[in-house]
Specification:
alpha+beta; four-stranded antiparallel sheet; 7 strands; elongated
Length: about 160
């Protein structure tokens, strides 16, 4: 695996420490990350997203969705109901899991639904008015018009 040196990024930028730390965390994480449970991330509108997680075998009461420190954390823990059962083949995984999604600035969770074995989490990006681009009107300078009038009277 490659090692990246982010020192030039730290020297040449101000206020981007969070991005560099996130890149460092992603690149240094183990390549054999857990792929359970499978999920999709889709863009549903210009500023809207949906995360869909396959949670077959889990009830709503087994699932937890929370936002903490800029991360969306989805976890599940199945109550032990298998006492007295003997499985010849067990292919439906109901093991506990925790899945983390790092959220960008101004992205918030607006809701979560659980239907047909899928957990859907809807997110929206809301940019504050102070950060939206705005047009600055250029006012005419009265001094320049006066200078033109004075130049005409002298000539």
């Amino acid at each position: 695996m490659r090692n990246f040196d982010f020192a030039p990024l730290y020297r040449a930028t101000v206020g981007f420490d969070q991005i560099a730390d996130m890149l460092d965390r992603v690149l240094s994480s183990d390549v054999t990350q857990n792929t359970y449970p499978p999920y999709n991330i889709e863009k549903t509108a210009d500023d809207a997203y949906r995360i869909s997680i396959a949670v077959a075998g889990f009830a709503e009461s087994d699932l937890t969705v929370e936002v903490k420190e800029g991360a969306l954390i989805v976890s599940a823990r199945k109550a032990e109901e298998d006492e007295g059962r003997t499985y010849l083949h067990r292919g439906i995984a109901t093991r506990a899991f925790e899945r983390r999604f790092q959220l960008a600035d101004h992205v918030r969770v607006v809701g979560a639904t659980h239907t047909d074995g899928m957990l859907h989490i809807d997110l929206v990006r809301e940019i504050p008015e102070a950060l939206k681009p705005r047009r600055i009107e250029i006012a005419k300078s009265e001094a320049s018009e006066k200078d033109v009038l004075d130049a005409e009277t002298v000539n």
